[in-house]
Design brief:
- The protein has 284 residues and is α/β, with parallel strands linked by helices.
- The chain has a single domain (36-282), classed as 3-Layer(aba) Sandwich (Rossmann fold), CATH 3.40.50.150.
- Helix content is 27%, strand content 18%.
- The chain has eight helices and eight strands.
- The protein has helices at 64-72, 85-100, 114-120, 151-160, 174-184, 214-221, 229-236, 263-270; strands at 54-58, 77-82, 107-111, 127-133, 161-171, 188-192, 243-246, 276-282.
- The protein is globular and about 50 Å long.
- The N and C termini lie far apart (44 Å).
């Protein structure tokens, strides 16, 4: 299926310059199962200055967030990961055209499954922020396993983030939000920002309850699979609460009244949809 994003114009992802090439990301080695670290490759080295702070976006779509935010953070390297080839090619071509004019030297694009990339490819503590905006809700029960937020993904995000690093999440889909929160509550403490340590507020809603109706959260718990044993082992080696659950801070590139300012958000706002957002900050 083609979305006709190029409108008849050839799209060039510029592999090796904008798009990550096969030479930069070779196939997984044969001993990957016996030595999971054998497939690690530091994506910071794909940029002219690998010493800069590194952030990645899961599901970049048309690349709007990257094109907006990377201009405002020229000293930060951004990697956009997109699984749908046409969207990846379109986003990479948008970056290429700006880079030809001397801009966006701090953005690369990668065509792959972001969950698998984090699990098999990324070394520990390399990333400052993981952005996840308007991911596919996969609404049918049989497709829930395709949703981005899973227990393994959260374990990988915690490992890849630097201390104090953040996972930032925005969605317009109420059922997906409940699914996300039903996962998050197993990874966060019981306080959300605004409730101080040792402070007791009458009828205050804390933790996930501050972000979602408790009844919706309770209903989502029955749909969330049990934490896999391999993840449970990793989880046991982490702090009791690996993340703090915080309210979402809008990026500078978001327009007035926007959370992020992506194409999806602008379209959904015109439709009158509600939005849900939060941040998970890594504890150590």
């Amino acid at each position: 299926m083609s979305f006709g994003l190029g409108h008849g114009r050839p799209l060039d992802p510029a592999p090796g310059w904008v798009g990550v090439s096969e030479e930069e990301l070779p196939p997984l080695p044969d001993d990957i199962l016996s030595d999971p670290r054998s497939g690690w490759i530091d994506p910071r080295n794909w940029f002219p200055d690998p010493r800069r702070p590194f952030e990645l976006e899961i599901g970049s779509g048309k690349g709007t967030f990257l094109l907006q935010q990377a201009v405002l953070q020229p000293q930060t390297n951004f990697l956009g990961i997109e699984w749908a080839r046409e969207f990846y090619t379109y986003a990479a071509d948008r970056v290429r055209r700006r880079r030809t004019a001397g801009r966006l030297l701090n953005v690369r694009m990668l065509h792959t499954d972001a969950s698998e990339f984090l699990h098999w490819r990324c070394p520990d503590t390399i990333c400052r922020v993981v952005h996840l905006y308007f991911s596919d809700p996969w609404p049918k029960n049989r497709h829930h396993k395709k949703r981005v937020i899973q227990h393994r993904l959260l374990a990988d995000v915690w490992r890849v983030l630097i201390p104090g690093g953040e996972l930032r999440v925005v969605t317009d889909h109420a059922d997906l939000w409940a699914w996300d929160m039903a996962h998050f509550e197993q990874w966060v403490g019981n306080r959300s920002r605004g409730v101080s340590e040792g402070q007791t507020l009458p009828h205050a809603r804390e933790g996930p309850d501050a972000f979602i109706d408790p009844e919706l959260l309770a209903g989502a718990r029955s749909l969330v699979p049990a934490m896999p044993e391999a993840v449970r082992v990793r989880r046991a080696a982490m702090p009791a609460a690996p993340f703090d659950l915080l309210t979402f801070d809008r990026p500078e590139s978001a327009g007035a009244g926007e959370l992020v300012g992506t194409n999806f958000e602008r379209k959904f706002r015109e439709e009158g949809r509600a939005f849900h957002a939060c941040t998970l900050r890594k504890r150590v």
